[in-house]
Amino acid sequence: MKKTLISMASALALLGAPALATAADAVKIGFVTTLSTGSGAIGEDMRNAVELAIEHLGGKMAGRDIDVIYEDDAFKPEVGKQKTDKLVKKDNVDFVAGYIWSHVLMASYKSAVDNGKFLISSNAGPSALAGKLCHPDVFSTSWQNDQTTMAMGDLLNQRGIKKLYIMAPNYAAGKNMVEGVERTFKGEVIGKDMTKFPAQLDFSAELAKVRAAEPDALFVFYPGRHGVQLLTQYAQADLAKTVPLYTAFTIDSLSLPRVGEQALGSLMTMFWSPDLDVPANKKFVSDFKAKHGTYPSHYAAQSYDTIMLINSAVEKVKGDLSNRDAVRDALKAAEFDSIRGDFKFGHNHLPIQDFYLREVVKDADGMYTTKIVAKVYEDHQDPYAAECKMN
Amino acid sequence: MNWLLLLEQILNGFQLGLLLFLLAAGLTLVFGIMDMINLAHGSLYMMGAYFCATFTSWTGSFLLGALLTLPAVFLLGVLVELVALRTLYTRDHLDQVMATFGLILFFNEATRLIWGPVGLVIPLPDFLSQTVEIIPDAPYPAFRLLIIIVGFIIAGLLYFLVTRTRLGMLIRAGASNREMIGALGINIRLLFTLVFGLGAALAGLAGLMAGPILSVEIGMGESILILTLVVIVIGGIGSIKGAFIAAILIGLIDTVGRSFLPELLDIFLPSDSAATAAPAIASMLIYLLMALILAIRPQGLFPPKGVGK
To answer: What is the rounded end-to-end Cα distance, in angstroms, of chain B?
Structure first.
């Protein structure tokens, strides 16, 4: 009898859930990410983190239900913009969040802010939105593209690298990442290849040039599926003996199960790592691992923070989202426990934060992950903030 | 100019070209003989890679996995032909495009359901994951060399098949005049099914060869399909010889262009604009070539006999 009751109840819950979730009093969040194509795994990871954040919040923000609507940008700027339009106009969401790719975000953000919605980037950090085009309604729980590679440039200086070869995809974020490393790297950049993105997946021609140029080190930025391919081809070309590899956003917990062996010992810079000793991070990482069996990626970590940031604002205004100035101030205050510890926004609404050097290691269970080796920057602000005329 | 680098880039060009040839051969046969636009050719390439990844993990050997993959993709091709494409031969090209585009979506979603959204890895045996010094002082990845060798062998076998065997005679006849060989009492349905299966197996071979270099992922067929279409248009639709030469040409131009264009532009332009213009122009090169060839010889470089005259 009890069993029947339980199954009846769960059937009702299942049937009732969608109706409840779309009830008028829910806080609506539109989440644009990549769920299809070869990079769909990133979106999956972000969605898992969003779901975990909602679970940690007990499914409520200031007593209101949470309704997250996920949209797939198919890795294309035009689709990202369409989906943003749909979320803003048809679904009338309160917040738009997500966005992995800088070019997708650049194409989409106006659709959100021109219609009076708050936008929180969970990954992309194009220079324009940090500087000249900064907007009072645009926030970020990630970083500006240049920052991570600026830390990398300083690391390369410390390691005595004099001649550097750079490879990156030819799109908004790729250009920012390269500018970042060139900002701080004091040696000579003896070669630079900007490859077609996302079409080019075979880097044989570029890797042959790297070998011929004989640099002290190779620095690459290849996010998502491109990272796996670059690492595999770098290994097959046997370059590791002569040209050490330094990366940014190329090796993450999504690619490590596939390339862990080759990536072991590899160095990268980032604002976060699964082993970062912060209570909120420990809870996030261990619960994520328990639920999905893998380490969360930085995409997941940033997405988790996105939901927590929104929650802090909704709580602060006691669930009343009608006063937009109050919500904006509450977002800006960012009073939540971030996975990176202290969280504060600069005047351009990008976080001012620490950057670390991470190394790929094997954990006690034989799983590949990253561990923090050193802190490279403390409270670092992006170089475009000065161009932002917002208070 | 660094001659060793140039030589290495030429090898890279051949490797890309031969990979494209494996795909283009099947596509051009289907297009030429059956007058059928098959956009799902890239999906068969993807299935080749996924099958090989699965078989390799079952058997523990890449070579065994590869050997099992070929008949599997052949059978899959035959199945697709029997179930879906057979009814489309008499329809116009737009219907075929719609239907085979639908097949792409079907294969991508089926792959996601079976293998999940994260891609797979095809592990290579040690002797293939090292480098060999075929050019002194320029170690070359052994697996890429294998692709070149296999590509040439397949090209030779196809040449023999098409010019020296009865099946090849029928294929050539079909490409020249489809109605006539039907009228002569040849079982054209069986021929079509066989040719489609053969094309699928070649696509599968390309997929399993590309898998270890360009990891195995959903949608991996679409990007390469565009290049393949360029190859068959340049080579002349229906011509294996044309596909071979065009594929090598595209491979070389793409690789060597990507590699040396930045330096070349540096001579004429300030280095800032050269750095931005070079990748853009390099990725346009092959399309420029296609436009040029279409302007001079709209039927392609080596059209089958009796076509485009």
So the answer is: 43
Beta pairing class for B138-141 and A95-98: unpaired
Q: What pLDDT shows up at residue B72?
A: 97
Q: Please work out, in degrees rounded to the nearest 5, the angle formed at the alpha carbon of residue A263 by the alpha carbons of A259 and A264.
A: 120
**Domain parsing of chain B, residue ranges:** 14-121+141-296
From A178, A97, A103, select the one nearest A141 (Cα to Cα).
A97
CATH 3.40.50.2300 domain extents, chain A: 2-143+276-353, 146-270
Q: In terms of Cα–Cα distance, which of B4, B2, B1 is closest to B134?
A: B4
CATH 3.65.10.10 assigned to A146-270: no
User: Token pair of A49, please?
Assistant: 């983190």
Residue B17, burial from CB neighbour count under 10 angstroms (0-12, 13-18, 19+): buried
d(CA A242, CA A218): 10
Q: State chain B's mean pLDDT as an integer.
A: 89
Mean pLDDT by 10 residues, chain A (391 residues): 50 44 74 88 94 96 95 94 96 96 95 95 95 95 95 94 95 93 95 87 91 94 90 89 92 88 90 95 96 95 97 94 94 95 93 95 93 94 93 70
Give the burial string for A345-368 (b: 16+ CB within 10 Å, else e).
bbebbbbbbbbbbbbbbeeeeebb
**Residue A14, pLDDT score:** 47
The answer to ipTM > 0.90 is no
Given the candidates 3.40.50.720, 3.40.50.2300, 3.90.800.10, 3.40.50.150, the CATH classification of the domain at A2-143+276-353 is 3.40.50.2300
Q: Using CA atoms, how far apart are residues A159 and A124, in angstroms rounded to an integer?
A: 29
Which among A270, A203, A268, A200 has a CA at the least distance from the CA of A235? A203
Residues of chain B with pLDDT under 50: 309
E strands along chain B, which residues? 131-135, 138-141
Residues of B in contact with A192 (CB under 8 A): 275
Residues of B with CB under 8 A from a CB of A: 2, 4-5, 8-9, 12, 15-16, 108, 112, 117-119, 121, 124, 129-131, 138-139, 141, 143-144, 212-215, 217-220, 223, 255-256, 258-259, 262, 275-276, 279-280, 282-283
